[in-house]
Amino acid sequence: MARVVVDVTIKPVILDPQGKAILGAIKRLGYEGFDDVRQGKHFELEVADSVTDAQLEEIAESLLTNTVIEEYVVRRVENEAE
Amino acid sequence: MARVVVDVTIKPVILDPQGKAILGAIKRLGYEGFDDVRQGKHFELEVADSVTDAQLEEIAESLLTNTVIEEYVVRRVENEAE
Fold this sequence. Notes:
2 helices, homodimer, 3-stranded antiparallel β-sheet, Mth169, Chain: A, 37% strand
């Protein structure tokens, strides 16, 4: 089995109101040095070793991402400390 | 400036209906070898170098995570290819 992470974020050119709201809350809590916050979706998939990178890209693009406003990153994390 | 990622996921013991729905969709699309999908939240923060790990942990725990049902991982990613 392999563990794969797909992180989906809103494209930088698109306004992220959720991120802005969190940034405002952080500043109201008195923290300094926080310049930007962007919120996205984090998917963790348990897949058989037979699953190819191409299949993962297809699923990330067609099912997990709205490619008009979002972009994604696919990472295999079986070795990484996660 | 440093880039920090906070990934928030539902605790393994908690049912993740969203993840189950995505898993069902993947299988209906005819893909094989997918055993589990869990969906969480992905935050990307741009922070000054003065921001400490302790502050990041505080914010992750108090603002970004519902610690009753969720757990989080904080990662500095300025070097990692992301």
